[in-house]
Model the fold of this input.
Amino acid sequence: QSTWGHFFQMADSVSGHKRTADEAGHDGAPLAKKPYHPPPNVHVLKATNQTRGCQTIIRDRETRRDDFIFFADRLIRLLIEEALNYLPAEETTVVTPTGMPYSGVMWPSKVCGVSILRAGESMEIGLRAVLRDCRIGKILIQRDEATAEPKLFYSKLPADIHSRKVMLLDPMLATGGSSKMAIEVLVAAGVDPRNILFVNVVACPEGIECITSAFPEVTIITAEIDERLNDVKYILPGLGDFGDRYFGSP
Done:
């Protein structure tokens, strides 16, 4: 039986993970306690016992990889559903099987996803679970060892991406350097920054500032905003390397 198999049978009793100064992370410094108020274009998934429970499991260093994948997928799907609320919808009327009209809405059909490799690929399952025929592009950005700056290595985007709403996928928003470059790639391909939704599982103030200062029109949807970065640019309290924990160490 899974280590966490019994966890969600008692979801209503989850009280959340209490952090202390002893859980500071790699640099050993106490976590900052200052309240952070994100800009208006940053939206945080509403915290419930279910979302906090998923976060608790994927953040626990003792969690097995199969459990990490299961609960990360669950949280990502909730996050994608939330992100869809920030896409425009058109009023429409349909006729029900009883012959009566029903006034509802239709989502835009021209939506695509773009994952920032490799961790961003983990979010494609959640996107396709919600938008079955969604086209997905990919961007690979890695740090240049000579300059320590992000460098574009690969980009494959839908030919008509300039006319689409784009959901940019990367589970972790840390320094924001790679994410900022990915947005620059999209803009160079003709995407209006107002049509970009950047979706991530965990963000931090430094990364948010990097993106919003460069692209204030981009909408960010995140599941949680953590305290800060440490000296080696890991998010605190964070969850480690998302890609390694999801796909396995390279």
